[in-house]
From TrEMBL, chain A:
Annotated SUPFAM superfamilies: ABC transporter transmembrane region (SSF90123), P-loop containing nucleoside triphosphate hydrolases (SSF52540)
Superkingdom as given in the UniProt entry: Bacteria
Main localization category: membrane
Any one GO CC term of the record: plasma membrane
Gene name per UniProt: cydD
Keyword annotations from UniProtKB, A to Z: ATP-binding, Membrane, Nucleotide-binding, Transmembrane, Transmembrane helix
GO biological process: cysteine transport
Residues covered by the ABC transmembrane type-1 domain: 31-305
GO molecular function: ABC-type transporter activity; ATP binding; ATP hydrolysis activity
Name listed for the protein in its UniProt record: Thiol reductant ABC exporter subunit CydD
TrEMBL record, chain B:
Protein name, entry field: Thiol reductant ABC exporter subunit CydC
ABC transmembrane type-1 domain: residues covered: 20-297
Alphabetical keyword list: ATP-binding, Membrane, Nucleotide-binding, Transmembrane, Transmembrane helix
Species of provenance: Roseicella aerolata
Domain of life: Bacteria
Length: 558, 548
């Protein structure tokens, strides 16, 4: 665990460093503006100190200085506004780039990624958003914490050397105080974020399965379990915060101590007729001295957020996409050959494919049969580039199919998986998804061919009816037919179907099989199916435990 | 906006003690800060003015305050955070219960991507209402009151110092509505961006199959840009609010100086006091305009939470529940039902009689309404006419909780939770011993597979059962239903996703594993081994006897 997390930290740091370097120009502007605002504050404090001294009987300043101080206050506010504006812009470009890169990687990993969709979506949404604090707040705050206090210290030193020394010592003590209180807190804080993430994950998981919980009358028990989890987390969090808040307290002790020491020093000084304006100036600048340090402490939370986010993102972004060749031209006809192909998902379980060999000739429909887990879907997944065999050869028209980039391999095929997904859009848009440049006529023809029109006519808006995420509002069989319509529209030389009639009643099934026969006409097709009607589709190949069972039989109907 | 926030406060009632304590400690700690600087100012004024004695006293009082103030700040942070955690946990659970009551059948057409964002970030945004709005506003109010009290001797000075500070107090309320619009816009943009990420990931196979990666990335980038724009608007508002806070504090400070200059020698001490009060108030008051933004964000979050939470319940609970019947014979009389007025009715005048122990196979093509029957039976939906009785009592008069105890249902969307197999099964029977779990697993035809897993019953299922294949997850869900003690089982396509052999093997044992119970098997076809006692085919909204 330890070396692993150390490696993750290293990768996370490298990621943040790389991105900061790319952003150097953008973050320089807010830092410079922040320093300018601080300089204006110092000048303003000098005027106010002189005015105060004048009030207390040491004349030398009047209404002109007051007007100047007011003008400086306005200038300072304008500079702070400009700084914030620059900070807001700084993170945007980095976030957009990182989000796109992470999302592209997630799509490329595709179905092979075992983590939940919620978790993966949170990578490209929440984690990337959390990085914003790093660029927009942490980097400027860290720079200002390094540059600001010395600037104030120098100004005070110029006015009164002793006060400058007091501030200087406080500045040197600050890292010591932080080290004493901050390091343990940082570690604990990171674990805390993870625990919070798990709690949110649990909450979401249970919300998604709410119908299941309600049907078993378990919603109340689950609500209580959520409450207990939250209580346990709160206890733990408060323990962590007890220490974490001490760093803020240390800063305040330091500030209060400095104030007291300056006041004490100047009480003696005033008796001897020192420079009252300088004394007041040093006192008035105490808040300005500590403000960048306070900003640093506040932004530290952003840094922790960002470090956690970078640690989660780094492994994803570090991986390289699968290289490969591009498809030179779309072949009109396709011959698929599997030679002794082996595929293992999980070393602890038997291989999914264990030396499978077969050949699907151009224009042939091959039906893969066999018990579930025999490896039918794996054949389709390899041909879709979702899985890579570890041994054997898969060839398309005699060429090694695995030499192609997965995205290029997929261009050959129209594929319908076991659980086709309907996007939150109209039926028409869902079908058009397979080929965005299709004409309305082509979409309607595909809908008719897959018997989508049959049930769409009964819907209030026909093909323009909106369906929910995951196909809400349609039965399983209807969703299946929408997916088949996509395959019709796709018009690819290779057709790959995984249980295309699983959710259909016998009446619809025979209709769909009829249209499947039309779909497969003139194309090479590989169909995984349990259906008793499968023999009507074409030659049946029995697969058992990852290999062909005996010689392929010839389908009865052909 | 105000109504929503007041309602949130009402939901936090249980934690009132903690919340008030947080406010009290915060006000005390802020006043300590004021006292610290006021004394320092007085000490200096006295020293410069030559009254060494008064200055000495001020410095003497200063010492304990120097130590007390950081301690008070620490306590303030601890108490306010503890109060926030408690309040947020309460609201999360309230929301969960409320949705279970109002949306028991799930979220339907709402984008679950959007819902994800709502649940997590909207609940979290509510902490701003307390931590970043209520607490600082009330603490600042204490500062302004203290300032007016201390400067009461010079009304003009009091006005010069307190007026800008009071304006800062009002700013949050002035800024909140505009910020609320910007916050709502940003939240909507984030919801859309999340949906743009989730939808393609949910259907990743289909996206890849359509070579739709570039389109999905372009959509996400577009939504990301829209979000950045909305956030920039919100951030810009916050920046203006922050600048306004700083300027108001400066105005108070310079006002005190101006009063001093005008009053000449006489008012020096008071002017210095006023100036130091303004400096002391800077930290608290400077935060206030931003409190308006936090208020707006919290209000926007609250609005969306309540929108979902206030969905009308699909079926009202009976005002006076009937006595719970002993039997579980089911009768359906003259049932008419449509999902929406503009949709074709699913049932029209449906009649059905199922004595105890019936094994009914309910057949019909996909989309005919077989699953709707289960929804009506479990009161996830209410019929427009007619009634269903259980043991002779109209289910409309029975609490849903009772019905769901009597009727266990394997729905098409039955879900496995990211927990152990044992915990997933025990959802149906919390007290079931391991032996009962194994029995149920064996009956569902998956016991053998679970035995081969190194962690056995403790194996985690992953989100939505992702660690298992579709057929395996289906069988685990089936085992869960078989484990339930309910005398009526509704099995909606129990064998979807199973291969023919496994399906046959399960259906052959259906009679023995459900011995004595009423079984409603909803399926689009019979394999021939189910041995139902009745077979009905749904057609045209009625159930017709069928041969199978």
């Amino acid at each position: 665990m330890e070396p692993h997390s150390a490696g993750r930290d290293g990768a996370a740091r490298a990621l943040l460093r790389r991105e900061s370097k790319a952003l150097r120009r953008q973050v320089l502007l807010p830092i410079l503006l922040g320093l300018a605002a601080l300089a204006v504050t110092i000048a303003g404090a000098w005027l106010v100190a002189r005015l105060l001294a004048a009030l207390l009987g040491h004349p030398g300043a009047g209404w002109a200085e007051l007007a100047a101080a007011a003008a400086l206050a306005l200038l300072g506010a304008a500079l702070v506004l400009a700084q914030e504006r620059a900070q807001l812009a700084a993170g945007e470009a980095a976030r957009a780039r990182l989000r796109d890169a992470a999302f592209a990687r997630l799509l490329e990993l595709g179905p092979a990624d075992p983590s939940g969709v919620g978790e993966r979506a949170s990578l490209v949404v929440d984690r990337v958003e959390a990085l914003d604090g790093y660029f927009a707040r942490w980097i400027p705050a860290a720079a200002l914490a390094m540059l600001g206090p010395p600037l104030v210290c120098a100004a005070v030193f110029g006015a009164d050397a002793g006060s400058g020394v007091i501030l200087g010592i406080a500045g040197l003590l600050y890292p010591v105080a932080m080290a004493l209180t901050g390091i343990g807190a940082a570690q604990a804080s990171r674990r805390q974020f993870e625990a919070l993430g798990r709690l949110s994950g649990r909450f979401l998981d249970r919300m998604r399965g709410l119908p299941t919980l309600v049907l078993f009358n378990r919603q109340e028990a689950e609500a209580e379990a959520l409450g207990e989890a939250a209580t346990a987390l709160r206890r733990h969090t408060m323990k962590v915060l007890r220490v974490a808040f001490l760093s803020g307290t240390a800063l305040e002790m330091l500030a209060a101590g400095v104030l007291a020491m300056l006041a004490f020093r100047h009480r003696d000084l005033l008796g001897g007729g020192g420079n009252p304006a300088a004394a007041l100036f040093s006192l008035l600048l105490v808040p300005a001295f500590f403000a960048p340090l306070r900003g640093f402490a506040a932004a530290y939370q952003d840094r922790l957020h960002a470090a956690g986010a970078a640690a989660a993102l780094a492994p994803l972004l570090a991986e390289q996409g699968t290289p490969g060749l591009a498809l030179e031209e779309m072949p009109p006809r396709v011959v698929i050959t599997f030679t002794d192909v082996r595929l293992t998902y999980d070393p602890a379980r038997p291989p999914a494919l264990d030396g499978l060999s077969f050949r699907a000739s151009a224009g042939e429909t091959l039906v893969l049969a066999g018990p579930s887990g025999a490896g039918k879907s794996s054949v389709l997944r390899i041909l879709m580039g979702f899985a890579r065999p570890e041994a054997g050869r898969v060839s398309v028209n005699g060429q090694d199919a695995m030499a192609l980039r997965p995205a290029e391999l997929r261009r050959l095929s129209a594929y319908v998986g076991q659980k086709p997904h309907l996007f939150r859009a109209t039926l028409r848009e869902n079908i058009r998804f397979a080929r965005p440049d299709a004409t309305p006529g082509q979409v309607e023809a595909a809908a008719r061919a897959a018997h989508v029109t049959d049930f769409a006519e009964g819907l209030p808006q026909g093909l323009d009816t909106l369906v929910g995420e995951g196909g809400w509002g349609l039965s399983g069989g209807q969703a299946q037919r929408v997916a088949l319509a996509r395959a019709f529209l796709r018009d690819a030389p290779l057709v790959l179907l995984d249980e295309p009639t699983a959710h259909l009643d016998p009446g619809t099934e025979s209709l769909v099989i009829e249209s499947l026969q039309r779909l497969c006409l003139g194309r090479t097709a590989i169909i995984a199916s349990h259906s008793s009607a499968r023999a009507r589709l074409g030659r049946v190949l029995e697969i058992e435990a990852g290999r062909a069972a005996g010689a392929p039989r010839v389908g009865a109907a052909q | 906006m105000l109504a929503d926030l007041i309602r949130v406060l009402g939901l936090w009632r249980r934690q009132g003690g903690w919340l008030l304590a947080g406010i009290a400690v915060s006000a005390a700690s802020t006043l300590l800060g004021v006292a610290l600087l006021a004394l320092a100012g007085q000490g200096i004024a006295a020293a410069l003015g030559g009254a060494a004695l008064g200055g000495g006293l001020a410095f003497l009082l200063l010492r304990p305050l120097v130590l007390l103030r950081p301690a008070a700040r620490w306590t303030e942070r601890m108490v306010t955070h503890a109060a926030t955690f408690r309040a947020l946990a309460d609201i999360r659970i309230w929301f969960f219960r409320r949705l279970a009551e109002r949306l028991p059948a799930g979220i339907g057409l709402g984008r679950s991507g959007d819902l994800l964002g709502r649940l997590v970030s909207d609940v979290d945004a509510l902490d701003g209402l307390y931590l970043r709005a209520l607490v600082p506003v009330l603490a600042a109010l204490a500062v302004v009151v203290a300032g007016v009290a201390l400067l009461a001797g010079a009304p003009l000075l009091a006005a010069a110092v307190a007026l800008p500070l009071a304006i800062a107090l009002l700013l949050p309320l002035v800024l909140a509505p505009g910020a609320a619009r910007a916050a709502a816009q940003a939240a909507r943009a984030q919801g859309r961006m999340r949906a743009a990420a989730i939808d393609p990931l949910l259907g990743v196979e289909d996206v890849l199959a359509a070579n739709g990666e570039a389109a999905a990335r372009a959509t996400l980038a577009r939504e990301g840009q829209a979000l950045a724009l909305a956030q920039r608007g919100l951030g810009w508002r916050a920046a203006w609010a922050g600048a306004a806070g700083t300027l108001l504090v400066q105005a108070a400070l310079l006002g005190a100086l101006a009063w001093g200059l005008a009053a000449e020698a006489g008012g020096a001490a008071l002017a210095v006091l006023g100036l130091f009060l303004a400096v002391a108030a800077a930290e608290t008051i400077g935060l206030l305009p931003r409190a308006g933004i936090s208020l707006a964000m919290a209000a926007a979050g609250a609005r969306r939470l309540f929108e979902l939470a206030d969905a009308p319940p699909p079926v009202a609970e009976p005002a006076r529940p009937a006595e719970e019947p002993a039997g579980h014979a089911i009768r359906v009389e003259g049932l008419r039902f449509a999902w929406a007025p503009d949709r074709a009715p699913v049932f029209e005048d449906l009649e059905l009689d199922l004595p105890e122990g019936t094994r009914l196979a309910l057949l019909g093509p996909s989309g005919i309404g077989k699953s709707s029957f289960a929804a009506l039976l479990l009161k996830l939906a209410a019929p427009q006419a007619g009634r269903i009785t259980l043991g002779g009592v109209d289910i409309a008069d029975l609490p849903a909780e009772f019905l769901r105890r009597r009727i266990a249902c394997l729905t098409q969307d039955a879900r496995l939770f990211d927990d152990s197999i044992a915990a997933n099964l025990r959802i149906a029977a919390p007290l079931a011993p391991d032996a009962a779990l194994w029995r149920a697993l064996d009956r569902a035809g998956i016991g053998e597979l679970v035995r081969t897993l190194p962690e056995g019953l403790a194996t985690r299922c992953g989100e939505g059962g992702a660690r298992f294949s579709g057929g395996q997850a289906r069988r685990l869900a089936l085992a869960r239903v078989l484990l339930s003690a309910a005398p009526v089982l509704v099995l909606d396509e129990p064998t979807a996703g199973l291969d023919a052999e496994t399906e046959r093997a399960f259906l052959e044992t259906l009679e023995s594993v459900t011995a004595g119970r009423t079984v409603i098997l909803i399926t689009h076809r019979l394999v021939g081994v189910e041995r139902p006692t009745r077979v009905l085919r749904l057609a045209g909204g009625r159930a017709l006897p069928a041969a199978g």
